[in-house]
Amino acid sequence: MSTEEKEPLNPEWVRIGATLRTIRELRGFKPDPFASSIGISRPYLANIEAGRKKLTNVLLARAAAKLEVEQVAIMCPEAVSA
Length: 82
Description:
- The chain is an all-alpha fold and 82 residues long.
- Helices cover 63% and strands 0% of the residues.
- The radius of gyration is 13 Å and the shape is globular.
- The longest helix is centred in the N-terminal third of the chain and has 16 residues.
- Helix 2 packs across helix 3.
- The protein has 6 helices and no strands.
């Protein structure tokens, strides 16, 4: 696949990544230390937050624990705010 023929982003991954970024920022975590604290690189975190990489269950659990939120708050924030 050439660089011009990129697959479209998965809308669910984009939504989850944006939610993760929002919660991370609201909790006051900078990208580098947060990524390190959950065992991934800063570029990998950027890809998750941009929806280019899937947030795996293991990383979801680590991120939720670090952010002190339920996993559902990252995956389905509308379920939490209802």
